[in-house]
Design brief:
Layout lengths: L1 E2 L4 E6 L3 H12 L4 E4 L14 E2 L10 H25 L10 E5 L2 H16 L5 E4 H7 L9 E5 L3 E2 L2 H15 L2 E3 L3 E7 L2 E7 L3 E10 L20 E11 L11 E6 L2 E7 L4 E5 L13 H14 L8 E11 L6 E4 L5 E5 L9 H14 L29 H5 L3
Parallel strand pairs: 1-12, 2-3, 2-12, 3-9, 5-14, 12-19
Antiparallel strand pairs: 4-8, 5-7, 6-7, 10-11, 11-12, 13-16, 13-17, 14-15, 15-16, 18-19
Helix pairs in contact: 1-5, 1-7, 2-5, 2-7
Length: 401
Protein backbone atom coordinates (compact mmCIF):
# COMPACT_ATOMS: atom_id res chain seq x y z
CA UNK A 1 0.00 0.00 0.00
CA UNK A 2 1.26 3.49 -0.88
CA UNK A 3 0.42 6.38 1.44
CA UNK A 4 -0.63 9.50 -0.45
CA UNK A 5 0.77 12.86 0.62
CA UNK A 6 -2.52 14.46 -0.39
CA UNK A 7 -4.33 14.30 2.92
CA UNK A 8 -7.54 16.27 2.85
CA UNK A 9 -10.40 17.41 5.01
CA UNK A 10 -13.04 15.72 2.86
CA UNK A 11 -12.81 12.82 0.39
CA UNK A 12 -15.79 12.46 -1.96
CA UNK A 13 -16.17 8.96 -3.38
CA UNK A 14 -17.88 9.22 -6.77
CA UNK A 15 -17.74 11.85 -9.50
CA UNK A 16 -21.27 12.02 -10.83
CA UNK A 17 -23.19 15.27 -10.54
CA UNK A 18 -24.01 14.59 -6.87
CA UNK A 19 -20.38 13.93 -5.95
CA UNK A 20 -19.21 16.90 -8.02
CA UNK A 21 -21.64 19.40 -6.51
CA UNK A 22 -20.77 18.13 -3.03
CA UNK A 23 -17.05 18.61 -3.71
CA UNK A 24 -17.54 22.07 -5.25
CA UNK A 25 -19.71 23.43 -2.45
CA UNK A 26 -17.46 21.90 0.22
CA UNK A 27 -14.33 23.44 -1.31
CA UNK A 28 -16.11 26.80 -1.37
CA UNK A 29 -16.49 26.47 2.41
CA UNK A 30 -12.71 26.39 2.74
CA UNK A 31 -12.30 22.66 3.33
CA UNK A 32 -9.51 20.90 1.45
CA UNK A 33 -11.48 18.53 -0.75
CA UNK A 34 -10.55 15.56 -2.92
CA UNK A 35 -12.75 13.54 -5.26
CA UNK A 36 -12.06 10.00 -6.47
CA UNK A 37 -13.56 8.70 -9.71
CA UNK A 38 -11.91 7.35 -12.89
CA UNK A 39 -14.25 9.44 -15.07
CA UNK A 40 -15.58 12.54 -13.28
CA UNK A 41 -18.78 13.76 -14.89
CA UNK A 42 -19.69 10.32 -16.23
CA UNK A 43 -22.28 7.93 -14.88
CA UNK A 44 -26.03 8.55 -14.83
CA UNK A 45 -25.65 12.19 -15.91
CA UNK A 46 -24.66 11.01 -19.38
CA UNK A 47 -28.02 9.26 -19.76
CA UNK A 48 -30.44 11.46 -17.80
CA UNK A 49 -32.87 13.74 -19.63
CA UNK A 50 -32.55 16.58 -17.12
CA UNK A 51 -36.20 17.28 -16.33
CA UNK A 52 -36.64 19.54 -13.30
CA UNK A 53 -40.12 18.22 -12.65
CA UNK A 54 -41.09 18.76 -9.02
CA UNK A 55 -44.74 19.22 -10.02
CA UNK A 56 -45.27 16.61 -12.74
CA UNK A 57 -43.13 13.98 -10.96
CA UNK A 58 -45.37 14.08 -7.88
CA UNK A 59 -46.42 10.60 -6.75
CA UNK A 60 -48.86 9.50 -4.05
CA UNK A 61 -47.16 9.04 -0.70
CA UNK A 62 -44.18 11.24 -1.60
CA UNK A 63 -45.30 14.56 -0.10
CA UNK A 64 -42.21 14.76 2.10
CA UNK A 65 -39.98 14.24 -0.92
CA UNK A 66 -42.02 16.89 -2.72
CA UNK A 67 -40.89 19.46 -0.18
CA UNK A 68 -37.26 18.58 -0.84
CA UNK A 69 -37.79 18.73 -4.62
CA UNK A 70 -39.51 22.11 -4.44
CA UNK A 71 -36.77 23.54 -2.24
CA UNK A 72 -34.15 22.46 -4.76
CA UNK A 73 -36.15 23.68 -7.77
CA UNK A 74 -36.40 27.10 -6.15
CA UNK A 75 -32.60 27.26 -5.92
CA UNK A 76 -31.98 26.32 -9.54
CA UNK A 77 -31.88 29.74 -11.27
CA UNK A 78 -29.36 31.20 -8.81
CA UNK A 79 -27.40 27.93 -8.78
CA UNK A 80 -27.15 27.93 -12.58
CA UNK A 81 -26.05 31.57 -12.69
CA UNK A 82 -23.31 30.93 -10.11
CA UNK A 83 -22.12 27.71 -11.75
CA UNK A 84 -21.98 29.21 -15.23
CA UNK A 85 -19.97 32.14 -13.91
CA UNK A 86 -17.62 29.85 -11.96
CA UNK A 87 -17.04 27.49 -14.89
CA UNK A 88 -17.44 29.75 -17.90
CA UNK A 89 -19.78 27.13 -19.40
CA UNK A 90 -23.49 27.02 -20.13
CA UNK A 91 -25.58 24.20 -18.69
CA UNK A 92 -28.61 24.36 -21.00
CA UNK A 93 -31.09 25.55 -18.37
CA UNK A 94 -34.49 26.27 -19.95
CA UNK A 95 -37.50 27.68 -18.10
CA UNK A 96 -39.84 26.17 -20.67
CA UNK A 97 -42.46 24.38 -18.58
CA UNK A 98 -43.95 20.90 -19.00
CA UNK A 99 -47.14 19.58 -20.57
CA UNK A 100 -48.48 16.19 -19.39
CA UNK A 101 -51.15 14.81 -21.71
CA UNK A 102 -53.67 11.96 -21.82
CA UNK A 103 -54.26 9.82 -24.89
CA UNK A 104 -57.40 7.93 -23.82
CA UNK A 105 -60.18 8.08 -21.27
CA UNK A 106 -58.30 6.04 -18.65
CA UNK A 107 -55.22 8.25 -18.98
CA UNK A 108 -57.43 11.31 -18.72
CA UNK A 109 -58.99 10.06 -15.47
CA UNK A 110 -55.54 9.30 -14.05
CA UNK A 111 -54.27 12.73 -15.02
CA UNK A 112 -57.32 14.33 -13.40
CA UNK A 113 -56.46 12.52 -10.18
CA UNK A 114 -52.89 13.78 -10.40
CA UNK A 115 -54.21 17.32 -10.91
CA UNK A 116 -56.34 16.99 -7.77
CA UNK A 117 -53.29 15.75 -5.82
CA UNK A 118 -51.23 18.68 -7.11
CA UNK A 119 -53.91 21.13 -6.03
CA UNK A 120 -54.16 19.57 -2.57
CA UNK A 121 -50.38 19.86 -2.32
CA UNK A 122 -50.48 23.57 -3.15
CA UNK A 123 -48.84 23.16 -6.57
CA UNK A 124 -49.54 25.28 -9.62
CA UNK A 125 -50.83 23.43 -12.66
CA UNK A 126 -53.59 24.12 -15.16
CA UNK A 127 -56.00 21.63 -16.74
CA UNK A 128 -56.29 21.98 -20.52
CA UNK A 129 -58.62 20.43 -23.05
CA UNK A 130 -57.19 18.37 -25.90
CA UNK A 131 -57.67 21.30 -28.26
CA UNK A 132 -55.84 23.65 -25.90
CA UNK A 133 -52.96 21.15 -25.63
CA UNK A 134 -52.64 20.99 -29.42
CA UNK A 135 -52.77 24.76 -29.64
CA UNK A 136 -49.73 24.89 -27.35
CA UNK A 137 -47.94 22.01 -29.12
CA UNK A 138 -49.22 21.54 -32.70
CA UNK A 139 -47.17 18.35 -33.19
CA UNK A 140 -49.27 16.46 -30.65
CA UNK A 141 -51.45 13.60 -31.88
CA UNK A 142 -55.04 14.54 -32.77
CA UNK A 143 -56.35 12.04 -30.22
CA UNK A 144 -54.96 13.85 -27.16
CA UNK A 145 -57.86 14.02 -24.66
CA UNK A 146 -56.56 16.64 -22.25
CA UNK A 147 -53.50 17.65 -20.28
CA UNK A 148 -51.83 19.42 -17.39
CA UNK A 149 -49.71 22.50 -17.96
CA UNK A 150 -47.01 23.05 -15.32
CA UNK A 151 -45.08 26.21 -16.13
CA UNK A 152 -42.80 25.77 -13.12
CA UNK A 153 -41.21 22.50 -14.29
CA UNK A 154 -38.11 23.22 -16.35
CA UNK A 155 -35.07 21.41 -17.73
CA UNK A 156 -31.27 21.41 -17.80
CA UNK A 157 -28.76 19.45 -19.88
CA UNK A 158 -27.14 16.97 -17.44
CA UNK A 159 -24.09 16.42 -19.65
CA UNK A 160 -23.31 20.11 -19.76
CA UNK A 161 -24.13 20.39 -16.07
CA UNK A 162 -21.61 17.67 -15.24
CA UNK A 163 -18.93 19.26 -17.42
CA UNK A 164 -19.45 22.65 -15.79
CA UNK A 165 -19.23 21.10 -12.32
CA UNK A 166 -15.92 19.40 -13.18
CA UNK A 167 -14.48 22.76 -14.25
CA UNK A 168 -15.90 24.57 -11.22
CA UNK A 169 -14.36 21.93 -8.94
CA UNK A 170 -10.98 22.31 -10.61
CA UNK A 171 -11.10 26.09 -10.24
CA UNK A 172 -12.15 25.78 -6.59
CA UNK A 173 -9.08 23.64 -5.83
CA UNK A 174 -10.67 20.19 -5.61
CA UNK A 175 -8.01 17.49 -6.06
CA UNK A 176 -9.07 14.76 -8.50
CA UNK A 177 -7.94 11.17 -8.04
CA UNK A 178 -8.91 9.49 -11.31
CA UNK A 179 -9.40 6.01 -9.88
CA UNK A 180 -12.02 4.08 -7.97
CA UNK A 181 -11.89 3.92 -4.21
CA UNK A 182 -11.52 0.18 -3.62
CA UNK A 183 -11.98 0.22 0.14
CA UNK A 184 -13.01 2.61 2.90
CA UNK A 185 -10.34 3.21 5.54
CA UNK A 186 -11.59 2.92 9.12
CA UNK A 187 -9.33 3.73 12.08
CA UNK A 188 -10.40 3.77 15.69
CA UNK A 189 -14.04 3.35 14.79
CA UNK A 190 -14.02 6.31 12.40
CA UNK A 191 -13.86 6.69 8.61
CA UNK A 192 -10.44 8.13 7.81
CA UNK A 193 -10.17 8.02 4.01
CA UNK A 194 -9.99 5.44 1.28
CA UNK A 195 -7.68 3.08 -0.59
CA UNK A 196 -7.62 3.61 -4.35
CA UNK A 197 -7.58 0.84 -6.95
CA UNK A 198 -3.81 1.15 -7.33
CA UNK A 199 -3.25 0.76 -3.59
CA UNK A 200 -2.71 4.43 -2.82
CA UNK A 201 -4.25 5.46 0.48
CA UNK A 202 -5.88 8.88 0.66
CA UNK A 203 -6.41 10.13 4.20
CA UNK A 204 -9.37 12.34 5.06
CA UNK A 205 -11.09 13.81 8.06
CA UNK A 206 -14.48 12.99 6.57
CA UNK A 207 -15.65 10.78 3.70
CA UNK A 208 -18.73 11.26 1.52
CA UNK A 209 -20.01 8.20 -0.32
CA UNK A 210 -21.65 9.58 -3.49
CA UNK A 211 -21.07 6.73 -5.93
CA UNK A 212 -24.63 6.46 -7.26
CA UNK A 213 -25.85 2.93 -7.80
CA UNK A 214 -22.37 1.63 -6.86
CA UNK A 215 -22.55 3.16 -3.37
CA UNK A 216 -23.52 -0.09 -1.69
CA UNK A 217 -20.52 -1.93 -3.14
CA UNK A 218 -17.71 -0.07 -1.37
CA UNK A 219 -15.58 -2.48 0.66
CA UNK A 220 -14.77 -1.67 4.25
CA UNK A 221 -18.13 -0.16 5.18
CA UNK A 222 -19.20 -1.89 8.41
CA UNK A 223 -22.20 -4.17 8.23
CA UNK A 224 -23.87 -2.02 10.88
CA UNK A 225 -23.97 0.88 8.38
CA UNK A 226 -26.54 0.02 5.69
CA UNK A 227 -26.22 1.63 2.25
CA UNK A 228 -29.47 0.32 0.73
CA UNK A 229 -29.08 1.50 -2.85
CA UNK A 230 -30.05 -0.59 -5.88
CA UNK A 231 -29.65 0.07 -9.63
CA UNK A 232 -32.74 0.79 -11.72
CA UNK A 233 -32.08 0.57 -15.45
CA UNK A 234 -33.31 3.26 -17.81
CA UNK A 235 -33.00 3.29 -21.61
CA UNK A 236 -33.04 6.66 -23.38
CA UNK A 237 -33.01 7.76 -27.02
CA UNK A 238 -31.65 10.93 -28.57
CA UNK A 239 -32.88 12.32 -31.86
CA UNK A 240 -32.05 15.45 -33.83
CA UNK A 241 -34.63 17.96 -35.02
CA UNK A 242 -33.50 19.35 -38.41
CA UNK A 243 -33.93 23.10 -38.85
CA UNK A 244 -36.69 22.46 -41.39
CA UNK A 245 -38.80 20.87 -38.63
CA UNK A 246 -38.20 23.57 -36.03
CA UNK A 247 -39.90 24.40 -33.80
CA UNK A 248 -40.84 20.77 -33.15
CA UNK A 249 -41.75 21.05 -29.46
CA UNK A 250 -41.47 24.16 -27.31
CA UNK A 251 -41.55 22.44 -23.92
CA UNK A 252 -41.17 19.03 -22.29
CA UNK A 253 -44.10 16.77 -23.16
CA UNK A 254 -44.91 13.64 -21.21
CA UNK A 255 -47.66 11.03 -21.02
CA UNK A 256 -48.59 7.56 -19.83
CA UNK A 257 -49.03 5.21 -22.78
CA UNK A 258 -50.29 1.67 -22.06
CA UNK A 259 -49.25 2.12 -18.46
CA UNK A 260 -45.68 3.18 -19.34
CA UNK A 261 -44.33 6.67 -18.81
CA UNK A 262 -42.76 8.41 -21.79
CA UNK A 263 -41.34 11.92 -22.10
CA UNK A 264 -39.88 14.09 -24.85
CA UNK A 265 -37.42 16.79 -23.81
CA UNK A 266 -36.48 19.32 -26.54
CA UNK A 267 -33.11 21.03 -26.22
CA UNK A 268 -32.38 24.50 -27.56
CA UNK A 269 -29.66 23.03 -29.81
CA UNK A 270 -32.14 20.79 -31.67
CA UNK A 271 -31.59 17.59 -29.68
CA UNK A 272 -34.71 15.70 -28.59
CA UNK A 273 -34.39 13.27 -25.67
CA UNK A 274 -36.94 10.47 -25.44
CA UNK A 275 -37.16 8.32 -22.34
CA UNK A 276 -37.24 6.38 -20.27
CA UNK A 277 -37.74 2.76 -19.43
CA UNK A 278 -37.68 1.67 -15.80
CA UNK A 279 -36.32 -1.85 -15.39
CA UNK A 280 -35.30 -3.78 -12.27
CA UNK A 281 -32.55 -5.79 -13.95
CA UNK A 282 -29.61 -5.38 -11.63
CA UNK A 283 -26.42 -4.14 -13.25
CA UNK A 284 -27.46 -4.74 -16.86
CA UNK A 285 -26.89 -1.70 -19.10
CA UNK A 286 -27.64 -3.35 -22.44
CA UNK A 287 -29.63 -1.29 -24.93
CA UNK A 288 -32.31 -3.67 -26.18
CA UNK A 289 -34.36 -3.70 -29.36
CA UNK A 290 -37.47 -4.04 -27.22
CA UNK A 291 -36.64 -1.00 -25.14
CA UNK A 292 -35.95 1.14 -28.21
CA UNK A 293 -39.11 -0.12 -29.92
CA UNK A 294 -41.32 0.62 -26.92
CA UNK A 295 -39.98 4.14 -26.52
CA UNK A 296 -40.38 4.96 -30.21
CA UNK A 297 -43.84 3.34 -30.34
CA UNK A 298 -45.12 5.30 -27.34
CA UNK A 299 -43.48 8.53 -28.48
CA UNK A 300 -45.04 8.09 -31.93
CA UNK A 301 -48.51 7.79 -30.39
CA UNK A 302 -47.85 11.01 -28.53
CA UNK A 303 -46.12 12.95 -31.35
CA UNK A 304 -46.52 11.14 -34.71
CA UNK A 305 -43.96 13.29 -36.49
CA UNK A 306 -41.14 11.86 -34.39
CA UNK A 307 -40.60 8.99 -36.83
CA UNK A 308 -39.28 11.50 -39.40
CA UNK A 309 -36.38 12.54 -37.15
CA UNK A 310 -32.85 11.08 -37.29
CA UNK A 311 -32.08 8.72 -34.39
CA UNK A 312 -28.62 9.73 -33.20
CA UNK A 313 -28.02 7.82 -29.94
CA UNK A 314 -29.33 5.03 -27.74
CA UNK A 315 -28.07 4.67 -24.17
CA UNK A 316 -28.87 2.81 -20.99
CA UNK A 317 -27.92 3.89 -17.49
CA UNK A 318 -28.55 3.02 -13.86
CA UNK A 319 -30.50 5.20 -11.44
CA UNK A 320 -29.52 4.80 -7.76
CA UNK A 321 -32.70 3.96 -5.84
CA UNK A 322 -33.27 3.52 -2.12
CA UNK A 323 -36.06 1.39 -0.61
CA UNK A 324 -38.37 4.43 -0.39
CA UNK A 325 -37.04 6.04 -3.61
CA UNK A 326 -35.80 9.06 -1.65
CA UNK A 327 -32.18 10.16 -1.23
CA UNK A 328 -29.81 9.30 1.60
CA UNK A 329 -28.27 12.55 2.83
CA UNK A 330 -25.94 13.17 5.74
CA UNK A 331 -24.05 11.30 8.46
CA UNK A 332 -24.15 7.56 9.07
CA UNK A 333 -23.68 5.58 12.26
CA UNK A 334 -19.96 5.39 11.45
CA UNK A 335 -18.35 8.68 12.53
CA UNK A 336 -16.75 10.49 9.61
CA UNK A 337 -18.80 8.70 6.93
CA UNK A 338 -21.61 10.52 5.13
CA UNK A 339 -23.94 9.49 2.32
CA UNK A 340 -25.13 11.50 -0.68
CA UNK A 341 -26.79 8.90 -2.86
CA UNK A 342 -30.10 7.14 -3.66
CA UNK A 343 -31.61 10.08 -5.58
CA UNK A 344 -33.37 7.76 -8.08
CA UNK A 345 -35.23 9.85 -10.69
CA UNK A 346 -34.55 13.18 -8.93
CA UNK A 347 -30.76 13.39 -9.01
CA UNK A 348 -30.54 16.29 -11.46
CA UNK A 349 -33.37 18.17 -9.77
CA UNK A 350 -31.83 17.75 -6.31
CA UNK A 351 -28.30 18.78 -7.34
CA UNK A 352 -28.36 22.36 -5.94
CA UNK A 353 -29.91 21.41 -2.61
CA UNK A 354 -27.73 18.33 -2.15
CA UNK A 355 -24.59 20.42 -2.59
CA UNK A 356 -25.75 22.95 0.00
CA UNK A 357 -26.87 20.29 2.49
CA UNK A 358 -23.66 18.29 2.30
CA UNK A 359 -21.41 21.35 2.47
CA UNK A 360 -23.21 22.54 5.59
CA UNK A 361 -23.03 19.24 7.44
CA UNK A 362 -19.38 18.74 6.46
CA UNK A 363 -18.32 22.22 7.54
CA UNK A 364 -20.49 22.79 10.61
CA UNK A 365 -21.73 19.37 11.69
CA UNK A 366 -25.32 20.61 11.38
CA UNK A 367 -27.70 18.69 9.12
CA UNK A 368 -30.20 21.25 7.73
CA UNK A 369 -33.81 20.82 8.78
CA UNK A 370 -34.99 20.21 5.20
CA UNK A 371 -32.74 17.15 4.92
CA UNK A 372 -33.40 15.48 8.25
CA UNK A 373 -36.24 13.24 6.99
CA UNK A 374 -33.74 11.84 4.47
CA UNK A 375 -30.91 11.01 6.86
CA UNK A 376 -29.41 7.52 6.30
CA UNK A 377 -30.32 6.52 9.85
CA UNK A 378 -33.94 5.99 8.79
CA UNK A 379 -32.84 2.54 7.60
CA UNK A 380 -30.84 1.77 10.74
CA UNK A 381 -32.05 -0.22 13.69
CA UNK A 382 -30.42 2.40 15.89
CA UNK A 383 -32.12 5.54 17.29
CA UNK A 384 -33.02 8.48 15.09
CA UNK A 385 -30.33 10.47 13.30
CA UNK A 386 -28.61 13.24 15.26
CA UNK A 387 -28.98 16.80 14.05
CA UNK A 388 -25.32 17.48 14.80
CA UNK A 389 -22.23 15.37 14.12
CA UNK A 390 -18.52 15.52 14.88
CA UNK A 391 -16.66 17.20 12.02
CA UNK A 392 -13.12 16.73 13.26
CA UNK A 393 -10.62 16.83 10.40
CA UNK A 394 -7.60 14.96 11.74
CA UNK A 395 -6.06 14.65 8.28
CA UNK A 396 -5.58 18.39 7.99
CA UNK A 397 -4.25 18.56 11.54
CA UNK A 398 -1.65 15.86 11.02
CA UNK A 399 -0.08 17.01 7.78
CA UNK A 400 -0.06 20.18 5.73
CA UNK A 401 -1.22 20.03 2.11
Amino acid sequence: MRISGNHCDVLVVGGGIIGLVTAWRTAQRGLRTALADPDPGGGAAQVAAGMLAAVTELHYGEQTLLGLNLASAKRYPAFVAELEEASGQGVGFRACGTLSVALDADDRAQLRELHALQQRSGLESEWLSGRECRRLEPMLAPGVRGGLRADGDHQVDPRRLASALVTACERAGVVFHRAWVRRLSVTGGRATGGVLADGTEVGAGQVVLAAGSLSGRLEGVPGTVPVPVRPVKGQVLRLTVPSAYAPFLSRTVRAVVRGSHVYLVPRADGELVVGATSEELGWDTTVTAGGVYELLRDAHELVPGITELPLTETRAGLRPASPDNAPLLGPTALPGLHLATGHHRNGVLLTPLTGDVMAQVLSTGELPEVARPFAPHRFDRSPAAPSRVDVRTPASQEQPA
